[in-house]
Amino acid sequence: MKLESLVFGIAGACFGLIAGWTIGVQQAERSPATPLAAAPAAAASAPALLDQDRVRTLEGIAERDAENVEVRVQIGNLYYDAERFELAAPWYEQALELNPSDVNVSTDLGVAYYQMNQPEKALEQFAYSLQVDPGHVKTLLNVGIVRAFGTQDLEGATEAWRQVVDLAPASQEAQVARRALDSIAAAHQGLTGAPSGSNP
After folding, report:
1. pTM, two decimal places
2. Domain residue spans of the chain
3. What topology does CATH give the domain 3-192?
C-alpha cells in the first residue's frame, strides 16, 4: 500500500470537514442581490431547499434575455445551494460565456465539476480562474481540496494550501489550509517516524 493511501486514511476525518467547506462557503454568503461568496463559512450548511417557483421565474427571464448574466448566475446559485450541481453547471457556463472575467462564478463552476466527479475538469476550471486572478485564495484552497481528494496529489495540494497561507495569512481560507497542512504533516510523521517540524 502506498504511503499516500495511508495518509488519506489517517487524515480522512479532518479532510472531510475541509471538503465540506467547498459547498458551505458559497451557501453561507449568498443573497439574492449578491450571489457571489468571498469568505468561507465556519461550517458547511445543509443543502438549501430548491425553490422551484423562483427557478421557473428566473428561467423565464433568462429565456427572454439572452444577455442577462446575473439571472444565469442566480439560477446556477439556486441549483448549487440545493446541491444539484449537474443543473448548476450549465447556467454557470452560460454566465461565463457572457462574462469571462467573473472569477467567483468560474470557481463555483469548478467546484460543481468536482462534485460531479470530474476532478480534472474542475482543475482546468480552477486554472482558468487563476488566469483571471492569480491570487484568488478561494480558488487556491479548492485546488488543494481537489488535488487531495480528486487526484490524490498530496504534493500539489500542499503547494496550493501553502500559497493560500502565504497570500492571505489572516483569512479564514488560510485557517482551513493550515488545518489541512497540519493533518498531512501529522499523518506523515505518524507513518514514517519523521521528527516534528519536518516537511510533509
Report:
1. 0.78
2. 3-192
3. 1.25.40
